[in-house]
Design a protein that fits this description.
single chain, alpha/beta, Rossmann fold, seven-stranded mixed beta sheet, three-stranded parallel beta sheet, 11% strand, binds iron/sulfur cluster
């Protein structure tokens, strides 16, 4: 493989308001090494295949003629089928921030069909502004449709995770193998449709699947299964938070019926080593923190000379290729903290790698992403902020550290003030005496 082309994918499903940052970080890194790379978030794309008139028509079509065996809530929703189909486009446009003008219309009686999610929550909704109430009602509308799909098409589907229960019970590969032995459901089919569109467009020579949470595992393996059936020559690698914690000790060779490589901990070095291997310049035994199958056994390679890149050397995350204007605000709570997580786009960066504290007894401090502590140099962080503002046009930042260090936050805050930059930012912290009224956590 002379010039590799990498396609990094987020399988369904994380949050719907903003992309999970793993592919953005790795895309930025590979670009900094002049490697051709594209990325896509299949979660939002799959959800938008459902939440469109044609998607809902397909769902209702599958239910017609089965009224007797359906839950009574589903039957009631079928009676309002045309209202759901008529309103799905304006609701999605509103939640994408493209039709703010229709907020007051959406909360007029009779405009949105009101299913079970509206009941009992109206009182709560009356206390908020017109705009927030419209966001809540639009969210209830989508939640009703989600419940319908869950009850009638597939129990796997939820608004921020897909088949999570399979990932949570993956102590043996049997659960995932059994789920994959079932024919793809309608939602799976949409997932595979968007997946093949990206493969055909990018024509990659390596596909990377990021699995941060249990709710991404099934989607990743469903994609990998389809790929191995049609393109067994195309290598697939998985990595991410879920892999790092739950699959570190995987010994079942069946996992490698679907994938070719599994990497652990920070993805930059293992991915680069893998690309070098696939390009013919690195033997397989010299891969970095990478597992693969050999003679029907799972083996690990970890070249001791392949060290991790420093924070100064990993490039800048990029959202290139991700359609930020298609993400949805889901407002299911007016709790301000909850809203930070579920509303709007946040550019994601890390103030430091790892945790400076490493003393909580419940924490797996031996894991690389906790134990290897390294601050991002402030100048570099500022350059990354400037670059992301220019790329995305968004000035909100979420520092995705496990516990952002007060010293680094102070240095960052002073640098922002010196440069008269206007951004808003937030992140996770430990309660520390080092935080003061002058240096509050955002
Ligand atoms: S502060 Fe967070 S990351 Fe650090 S040791 Fe405690 S739980 Fe782990």
């Amino acid at each position: 493989m002379a010039s590799p082309r990498v396609l990094l994918l987020l399988p369904p499903l994380t949050q719907l308001n903003t992309p999970y940052p793993s592919t953005a970080f790795l895309t930025g890194f590979l670009e900094s090494r002049n490697i051709a790379v594209e990325q896509a978030d299949l979660g939002i794309e799959m959800v938008l295949r459902l939440f469109r008139p044609e998607g809902l028509r397909n769902i209702f079509r599958q239910l017609h003629g089965h009224d007797d065996s359906l839950p009574k809530e589903a039957v009631a929703m079928m009676k309002a089928e045309h209202a759901y189909i008529d309103m799905i486009e304006p609701v999605i446009a509103f939640l994408q921030g493209k039709r703010p003008d229709i907020a007051s219309h959406l909360i007029q009686p009779g405009v949105l069909p009101q299913g079970p999610r509206f009941r009992g929550r109206k009182k709560f909704a009356r206390t908020v502004s017109v705009d927030d109430r419209a966001k809540q009602w639009a969210t209830f509308f989508l939640e009703d449709l989600t419940d319908l799909v869950q009850a009638t098409i597939t129990p796997h589907f939820a608004l921020s995770r897909y088949a999570e229960q399979i990932g949570r019970s993956a102590s043996s590969f049997d659960h995932i193998a059994a789920a994959l032995a079932e024919p793809p459901n309608l939602i799976d089919e949409w997932l595979l449709e968007v997946f093949w569109e990206h493969v055909n467009k990018v024509t990659p020579s390596l596909i990377g699947l990021s699995i941060p949470f249990p709710g991404n595992l099934y989607g990743a393996f469903r994609i990998a299964q389809a790929l191995k059936q049609q393109r067994p020559d195309l290598p697939v690698v998985i990595g991410g938070g879920y892999v790092n914690t739950e699959l570190r000790r995987v010994a079942d060779p069946r996992v490698f019926d679907y994938i070719d490589f599994l990497t652990l901990d920070n993805g930059e070095r293992p991915l680069l080593s893998l690309i070098e291997h696939l390009s013919g310049v690195r033997p397989r035994q010299s891969l970095c923190r990478t597992m693969y199958r050999e003679k029907n056994r799972v083996v690990s390679a970890n070249d001791p000379l392949s060290t991790d890149f420093t924070m100064d050397d990993i490039g800048c995350p990029t959202y290139r290729g991700l359609a930020l204007d298609r993400y949805l605000t889901i407002l299911d709570s007016t709790n301000p903290m909850h809203r930070l997580w579920s509303e709007g786009h946040w550019n994601k960066l890390t103030v430091a790698h790892g945790c400076y504290w490493k003393q909580c007894t419940f924490c797996d401090v031996g894991l690389n992403y906790i134990s290897r502590y390294e601050m991002t140099p402030t100048d570099r962080l500022i350059r990354q902020i400037e670059r992301l503002v220019s790329e995305t046009g968004r000035r909100g930042f979420h520092f995705v550290d496990e516990a952002a260090p007060p010293a680094a936050l102070k240095a960052l805050a002073l640098a922002i003030l010196e440069r008269r930059m206007t951004i808003s930012w937030w992140g996770n912290i430990r309660f520390e005496t080092a935080f003061s009224p002058d240096l509050p956590p955002a």
